[in-house]
Amino acid sequence: MNKKSWIRDMKAIPFLLPFFIAYLIFTIFPIFKGLEMSLYDWSLVRKLDFVGLENYKEMFTDPHFWRTLWNTTLFVILTTPTMVILALGLALFANMRTRLQTFLRSAYFLPSILSVAVISFIIIFMLQPYSGFVNTILHTIGIETELFWLTDKVLAWITIVVVTLWWTVGFNMVLFLAGLQDIPESLYEASEIDGASRWEQFRHITLPQLMPIGRVILLLQILASYKVFAQILLITGGGPGGATRPLIQYIYEVGFRQNNLGYAATMSYALFFILLILSIIQLKAQRTEES
User: Fold this and answer.
1) Which of 212, 191, 194, 193 is nearest to 202 (CA)?
2) Fewer beta carbons within 10 angstroms: which end of the chain, N or C?
3) Collapsing DSSP states into helix, strand and coil, what is residue 39?
4) How far apart are CA 169 and CA 164, in angstroms?
5) Residue 277: enclosing H or E segment and its boundaries?
6) Calpha distance 128→10 (Å, rounded)
7) How many Å apart are CA 119 and CA 182, to the nearest integer?
8) Which residues contact 229 (CB under 8 A, 6 or more apart)?
9) Which residue ranges run through the membrane (predicted)?
10) Which of 187, 14, 172, 147 is nearest to 80 (CA)?
11) Measured between alpha carbons, how far is 36 from 92 in angstroms, rounded to an integer?
C-alpha cells in the first residue's frame, strides 16, 4: 500500500469510529461478558460463585432445555420451507404487469410493518372461542365444532405458524421481488423466440437467477425462526402445557424469573453455536455450488 492510499484510507476513520465504538460496546463486549456469565452463578443483582462448566453440565441434563430446543426446531421446520415457497409465489404475483400490481405489493408487505404486540392482539381477538371472528365464520359455513385455537396443542402450532407466515412473509417477498426485477428481460425474449413455455422459462431462467437471493433468504429465515419468541409469548404463553414454548422463552424465564443469569447465558451460547454451525454449513454449501 503506497502512502497516498494509506492517507486516503485514514480519512475514513473519523466516519467509521462512532459505529465501531458502538459495535464494540453493544456487540463485542456482550459476547465476552455473556461467556463470563456462563461460568458463574450469576443473579440479577451481582456475580456470585465461580462454577466453571457446571452450568453446561446442567444444560445437557435439563429436560426443559431439550424440549424447548425441539419446539424451536419444529417451528423452524414448519415455517422455513413454507416461508421461502410462499414468498417466492407472492413475489411472482406481485411482479405481474397488471393494474393490481401496486395493490398486491402493498397488501403483501403491509403486515410486516405492524408490531408484534398489535399482531398478537388481533390474533387473540379473532380466535376467541364462541365469539371470535374465525369460529363465527366456521359456524356460518356449517362447522358446529367449537375450536379452542390457543389451548389445543395442534391448533396452537397451526396458529403460531400461520400468524408468523402472514406477519413476516412480506419482507422475504420484497427480497424475491428485487431479484425478479434484476433478471434481464432479454433472457425471456430469447427463450420465447426459441419456443420455451412459461414453465420452462420459470425452471431454466427464473429459478437459477433467483438462487443467490434465495440462499440469503433461506439463511435469514432459519436464523430468524430459531430466535422466535415474542409472538409465542404473547399469543400462547408457550402453552398449552409448554407445547409451544421456544428456547428463548425458557432462557428468559430462567434468567429473569428464576434469577439465574449464569444458566440463561449458558443456554444462550448453546443457541449461538447452533446458529453458527448452521450458518457455516449454509455458506460452505453455497461456495461449493458456486465453484
Assistant:
1) 191
2) C
3) coil
4) 8
5) helix 261-290
6) 61
7) 32
8) 246, 248, 249, 252
9) 12-32, 69-94, 106-127, 154-178, 216-241, 261-281
10) 172
11) 48
Q: Kindly indicate the confidence band of residue 291, based on its pLDDT and cuts at 50, 70 and 90.
A: low
Secondary element (H or E) of residue 48: strand 47-50
Sign of CA dihedral 78, 83, 88, 94: positive
What mean pLDDT comes out for the span 171-193?
A: 89
Q: Which residues contact 200 (CB under 8 A, 6 or more apart)?
A: 191
Q: Rounded to an integer, what distance in angstroms lies between the CA atom of residue 242 and that of residue 68? A: 8
| DSSP per-residue string spanning 139-172 | HHTT--SPP-TTTSHHHHHHHHHHHHHHHHHHHH
Of 43-47, 119-123, 173-177, 253-257, the least confident = 43-47
- How far apart, in whole angstroms, are the C-alpha atoms of residue 64 and residue 68? 6
Q: Tell me, what's the pLDDT at 51?
A: 83
pLDDT band at 1, cuts 50/70/90?
low
C-alpha neighbours within 13 Å on the C-beta side of residue 228:
36
Handedness of CA 156, 66, 229, 169 (dihedral sign): negative
Question: What region does 237 belong to: left with phi over 0, alpha with psi -120 to 50, or beta?
Answer: left
Distance CA 248, CA 273 (A): 14
Joined grid coordinates for residue 251: 432462557
Q: Among residues 231, 218, 224, which one has the least CA distance to residue 281?
A: 218
CB 82 within 8 A of CB 72: no
CA 54/CA 38 separation, integer angstroms: 9
Question: Hey, is 244 helix, strand or coil?
Answer: coil
| Whole-prediction pTM | 0.88
CB 268 within 8 A of CB 34: yes
